[in-house]
Target: Anoctamin
Amino acid sequence: ITYSTNKQYLKHTPLSYDYVLVAKTINNQERESFKKQTEYIEELKNKNFKVTKIIDDNHVFYGIQAPKEIFEKYRYLLKVSDACNWNPEYFYYYSLYLLICTENLRELIKMKVFETKFCLHEVKCFVCLFLILGFKNYFGEKVALYFLWLGWYTFLLIPPAIIGIIIFLYGISYYKHSPLLNEVCNSNTTMCPLCDKGCKEWQLNDTCSYTKVTLLFDNEGTVFFAMFMAIWATLFLEFWKRHRATYVCEWKVSDWSEEEEELILELVNDVNCEPKKFKHSYWTSSLIFICILVIISLTSAVVVFRVIAADFLAKYKLKSLGHHSNISVMVLGGFLHYFIITIMTRVHRCLKLSDALPEEIRSFASTEKSFTVKMFTFQFFTYFTSLFYAAFILGRINGRPGNYVKIAGRWRLEECHPTGCLTDLFIQMTIIMVLKQTISNVFEFTGPWLCRLWKGKRTQKLQRKCAHCYLKDDSDTKDGDELCENCKLRDWLSNYRLNDVDSFSLFREFLEMVIQFSFTTLFVAAFPLAPLLAFINNVIEIRLDAIKMVTLERRMVPKKTNNIGVWLDILEAIGVLAVIVNGLVIGVSSDFIPRLVYRYHYGPCAQGTAAPDTDCMVGYINNTLSIAPFLRVNGSYKYSENIPPGEEYKDYRSKDDYTHTHQFWIILAARFAFVILFEHVVVICKFIAAWFIPSAPMEVKNCRLSDKLKRLKEELQ
Model:
């Protein structure tokens, strides 16, 4: 239904209805549910709503159309509003939706008085829906802005995807010619066992393949790429603001206020209404905090699983695993983390606002903002807690020979490989991103398709219109014309069979993409191919989302808005967090700083007397290892001065008393200095970029000024 100011009348689609309520057939008229159902329908009729009732076997359908007077009031109040101040050329179902979908109706649906409610799809509109303007005219500005943002995000992923491929190719060239690889693969070094009892010493050259993977991503190129992605996140958001401003100006919603529109609709529905007060729900905040604690506990469970699995595989190495038990533990840990993500995502979907999160806030816009922030926080911890452990805790609190940190006094915490811990982070990110994007897309599309197919098989009737109504579709219809009852029912049943949508259906689409944006910017130093995977996924995601919304799901209630809401604030927060995280990954997690210190302070080129063809990194791996001055007896370490020790471990410690060496403190100071310098430089670049890029083009500002002047002249006349 659209309102045309040129023709000055409300144009209904005469062969259909605006909104449909569905209820189970109740034969006993004395039942309380039947009385409540009848009472609610009578309430709509008293407000001059047109209600048509059609019974189909076990269901009752109520077709609803709103009176013209309601839209006249709505249009007038928008015109005189302080915030909206808008003379609409058209508007959507949202007013009708808020008028009939009151809190009373939501309670009735909970009580099973009504089964569901939905807008009707218009088949004639499907052809134009694969353009932004088509989505705006059919689903409203809110859905259109989602596709506009997703398309812009996908387009700007092209530069980081290309640079990520270049960094990856540089990594391949780097590790093939790196002396670190030759040093590991040709080493005769014996390393300390991975467990105290039942484990044997292992040779460093057994991990040659692991070293190749590490050097593939832990190199100088990833430092540049991390800085680029931190600045790219800012440029993306600033250019998005300009891109959005162009479209919302064209759609005449630059000054739109969702909260004031809701206030207007409350007044239209009841002239004696009282404004709802602003409130804050401490219950929901507490619930989300408890869920975050549960996630942290589950992450601890993953850590315990990895420690036990590493101990088991180290003691009982299978021939099929050979010397790759550590990599096997990482892969198993990644799959377990994804399994936990899947379970907690299901829990998140069960935390509906109307059920588990009873939050009474002044308006739906405020409710949606609060819900979005809390649910994103919940999902963010679900996805990234384990990654933060792998990046910043793994291998740093495990202790030393003779004084290892153990769980329950039995299982030693995991250690880092002599070439670093970045491979563990890379493996986990690869598993989660690939599984999340492939499995999520498959289930996101096939799930609704199978549900529609199943519902269609259960109701195989009324598939075609009668000849009389078929001719009506192809001819000019007059106001008041209607389809016959059978054809109305056919139309309503076809919409009823589609998958249900609610007020937070678009929230789930945004959540999926913002989590992906987090993967693309956070920890990108460990996985330069993340932007490429995100780009490939989004090219498919845009089309799947469009097909799903048009053909597999009920029609979303069209809503007006002029931005993507609190998601923009979340994206900006992620951009700032990306600077901090990538700085810490390079400075703390990777071996970039220790290599620099060795090159210029301890390596063969440190004194400036090395031959021209000398590689400055020769001897680096041996420099990172310390000798254990202990003799292992029955799994325990005892100090020995007479027996020359042969086992080594990764750390910078003295072989006499296990105290940290001077080099350890130099590296630690260099790490902190790099993190501070990196973050300050990148943050300054981000602020400069944000300052030099205006949020709206000059053409948009001039257009808005001209529109305001034109409207004032019209009011003066």
